[in-house]
Amino acid sequence: MQPSTLLGRLPGLRHFIEVARQGSFRAAADKLHVAPSAVSKQIKNLELALDTELFRRDRGRGGLELTEAGEILMFRCASVVNELTIAQDEIAELRGLQRGELRLGVNEVLASDLLPGILRDMSYNHPGLKFHIVVENTREIVQRLQEGEIDIGLGYNFPPTPEIETLATLRRRTYAITSLDHPMARLRQVRLSEIDGEKVIFPDTSIPMRHLLENALAQAGVEVREVMNTNSFTLLRQMVESGMGIGIVFGSFLQIRRERLAFVELLDLPFESPPVACCRMAGRAPTASSAAFAASIKTIFVNYGG
C-alpha cells in the first residue's frame, strides 16, 4: 500500500487507535462522540485497505483483541501520534506559541515559590498558550513523564537513570525561616547548634528532607521541640509566619507573594541540599512550549543567588 493511500485513511487510523485503547467499538464511539456503526465502518474500511484483520472478534464479552498485524499498526501509530503532537506544537511555535500547551509536573514547594513568576511571564508573552500543571511528588512526576502525560518535570530527588534527561539543575542554600518578630529574624546566618531548644515545624516523614534534618540534628546533638509536621510546605511557611515555630527550607524564591518571613542561612550542616532539577524523557523531541519553559528555567537558575 502506497504511503499516500495510507494517509487517506487517517480518520480510520484515529478510530483504530481508540478501539485498541478502549477494547470495544462502543466505548471508542463514546470517546469519539460518534455512532458505533461509524467506528465499525472505519475499521472495516481500514482492514480492507490493508488486506488484513486488525482485531480478533471472537472473544465475546472479553473485549476486542489486536491481531499480530493490529499490534504492529498500533505500535507504529503511537509513534505517528507522538510526531503529530510535536508537529502541532512546532507549528504553534511558528505562530509565536499562541496555540501551544505546556504540560508540567512540579513539586509543591516549587509550585508556590518558583513557578508563578515563570507562568506569569510566559502567559504575558504568549497569551494563547494553555497550561496543564500537575503538583505531585517526584515519584509521581517521573511516572507521568514515562507515560507521556507531561513534558517537563520540575522538582527534587529525580532518580539517576538514562531515560531521564536533566536540562538544568540548581543547588539551593538551606535556611531557617522565622516570623519577623522572632529573635533570630535579625540575623543573616546561624549555626545548627544555635537552634537548640527551638520549636520547629517539620516536613512529614513522606518527604526525604525530613530524614536529612533528623540525621543532622542527631549528629550535632541538637534537640528541638517538634510542634507540627505537614506534607505541605505552603502550610509550613504560613504557620511559621504566624509565629508557631521556625521551619527549615531549601532556598528562598518567593517571587510573587512576599511572605512576612525571615530567611536565616543555616550553617554547619552535614549534608548538601538536593538540587532542583528540570527534567524530561530522553529521546523525545521537545514541544515548543516545553523548550520555552526550559529556557526560562535555565535563565533563572543562572541568575539565582540562593
From TrEMBL:
Q: What is this protein called?
A: HTH lysR-type domain-containing protein
Give the source's domain of life in one word.
Answer: Bacteria
One Gene Ontology cellular component term attached to this UniProt record is:
cytosol
Q: Which family does it belong to?
A: Belongs to the LysR transcriptional regulatory family.
| Chloroplast is among the record's keywords | no
Q: Does the keyword Metal-binding apply?
A: no
Which Gene3D superfamilies does the entry mention?
A: 3.40.190.290, Winged helix-like DNA-binding domain superfamily/Winged helix DNA-binding domain
Molecular function per GO: DNA binding; DNA-binding transcription factor activity
Domain HTH lysR-type, by residue range, is 13-67
Q: Which Pfam families match?
A: HTH_1, LysR_substrate
Listed A to Z, the keywords are:
DNA-binding, Transcription, Transcription regulation
Species whose genome carries this gene: Salipiger pallidus
